[in-house]
Amino acid sequence: MKKRIIALFTLLVLGAIMSPAFSQSLSVICRCVAGGANSNQVAWLKEYVIPEFEKAHAGVSVTLNEFGGTDDALKQQYALDLSVGKGNDVMGFDGFWIPEFASGNLLKPLNAVAGSAVDSWEGWNHIAPGIQSILSYGGEIYGVANGTDVRMIFYRKDILAQAGVANADAWQPTSWADIADAAAKVLAAFPDSAPLQINAGTSMGEATTLQGYYMLLLGTGEEPFMDGKWVVRSQGILDTLNFYREIYVDHAYGSQRVQLINDGRNLSFANFRDGKTAMLVEGDYFYRSVTPAGSEFAVENRDQVMGWAKMPSETPGSGIRGQDFVSASGGTGWVLNPNSANPQLAWEFLAFMNSKAARDVWMTYQPGIPARDDVPVPNNAFLTDTAAALLPLTVSRPNNDFYAKVSEQIQLMTENVVSGQMTPQQAMDAYAAAVTGIVGADATVDLLAR
Amino acid sequence: MHERRTILPLRTGLLFLGPAALFIGAFILLPFFWIAGVSFTNRSLTGITAANPQFVGLQNYLKLFDLSTFMNPGQFGSSLVITGQFVFWSAIVGQAVLGLVLAWFFYRRTGWVKESVQTLAIVAWIIPDVVVAFAWNAFLDYDGGTLNWLFGLVGIHKVDWLLAMPLLSIILFNAWRGSAFSMLLFSSALGSIPPSYLETADVAGAGPWQRLKDIILPLIRTHIVTDLILITLWTFNTFGPFLLTGGGPAFRTEVVSVLTYRMAFKYFDFGTGSALGMVMMLINLGFALVYLGLLRRQGGSR
After folding, report:
1. Residue A151 carries which DSSP code?
2. Distance CA A67, CA A87 (A)
3. What's the order of all strands across the beta sheet hosting A306-309?
4. What confidence tens digit (pLDDT) does each residue in A219-228 have?
5. What was the ipTM of the complex prediction?
6. Inter-chain contact B46–A430, Cβ cutoff 8 Å?
7. Checking phi first, is residue A227 left (phi over 0); if not, alpha (psi -120 to 50) or beta?
8. Cβ contact (<8 Å) for A261 and B162?
């Protein structure tokens, strides 16, 4: 018995030592789970990208690691992995993480990792500079973007109609007051409902900052970062916080609970599915990935009951650049691990993932706004309409080293207001103090002081 | 002056101590000094200060004790108050008192009630944290939780425990979780009391309260102090509430250990996280000194 164990152990050790000599391996990680979040991505990688890549590269084996936690948890995992020189070779990445990872030397520019093969890639000629910049920092490219997205209000035509909101089939509010008005009508008709969902609080992470706070603040004509300075006090911040207060504290137009509990974002999706929430501000991701038939939060009869509207400014013309309507954009993509044992091979995989062939196939798994100009925009009314209406209006987050930290303070500020524990003025003062501590007084501006 | 006689010669003794000293040095002392050092820098996991951390003196500590924000939700002062309430109610009142009551109730009794209650208490104590937290989440859940279901059976309105009474929830959770330790410690302490003392008291006509106050408590006083030292330190440092509430809603259950985690591993701000760790250690040291002082005084008076 003992001998057999020793023999087995020796074999295992030998196997572990020898195997790299026979074959090369690559690992890929994304926030994607078969049957769960981004399950299309798993299907695309496992059914097309990985098998095709392995066919073309004899002796190479690629493993996909499906990460089932939240975006914040994945970011934490990446930071810890990279800081000790470990991690997967190819990593799914959110564009706004790039500055802090790049400036912390946790990531390196693509051509520093994989050499000149990167610079001579044919794909760069087909990806617009604006989309290349999603995963860039300091003029260097750190990854290849999947594409971009836009944000809007999704609404339930059936619920608005039952509540007596005018023009419920093609609803388009033109001010925040219109939104509040519709919410009041739904709440009067369905007292147990939480008609309006505009994300707030820390537990939703970046979904609070971009889908919630940004979409309101842009409607006041401001951004968090303007003319090279972080705005720490302004009328726009106060108006935004006052609207949050109106929604969650004064009138219960939205569910305070959803903003405060751990799993609030999924609950907000469930409420929309169940008709408890009639209006929800989200990215086109909500249409593409969250609500299609067969997914967890599938909306029944989606084509009949679900509509989208442009997010209005506070009042017509009050938005950023004088706009009547606003939108915010981000984007995700893939980066290379600078600690990879096979950087050239990892780049070949990344390049193949973003080849025209692979991206054409991706569009059959999940139609979206493609990054490559030689991949035809899918014939999908929702995508073509939203892209045409919202891309000209949209705003991206600042490509700034401190953005992620300031974003956390934004989430905290909204939580302080929607939980009722601070007034908008107090919450803004706390935000001003915290942001000044993070970026330094020289990099901030107080618009109320003038 | 004559040399003290020892079992082993000095050199052999040091040799025996060597391995343990090496481990303590590598895994306790070294990290301690590293954290102490980091607490004076702005080192972080990401961003410019990850690549080039700078010495910032006492800035991290001054930020923790900045009185203008000290008591704001999510700040150190508010977190300390929450931790104080949590330790007092869940450890001292919950675990120690409940443990003593259980031990006293089953003292000199036998039978299946004693066996099953003690077994259940110990089971609650030995199952892993994550499993326990999962069970409690299922128990307290608003929509499908066991507790609200039971309330529904008797016609009481549903309560959103983790949102409406988050602090109470984690206090009950921790008291339930840890009472077994105190119960076991007090049971063995009671077992060491000579039965004749209590029999004499019975003959003299002492009631149960008098027996507890005049005989039992004085005899197990050292055990009580030991128990209090241990459970206060454990509860002060426990990370268990995180699994139930994540520190929320709106920081209302953010005990100091969870705050430290948020600073160091959510915001990647190692400087502030280390400063918090140092302050926590000093507070723990304070607790331990007070209790050890009490213990020593008792020892002296015997």
Report:
1. E
2. 13
3. A196-197, A279-283, A151-156, A306-309
4. 999 999 999 9
5. 0.80
6. no
7. left
8. yes
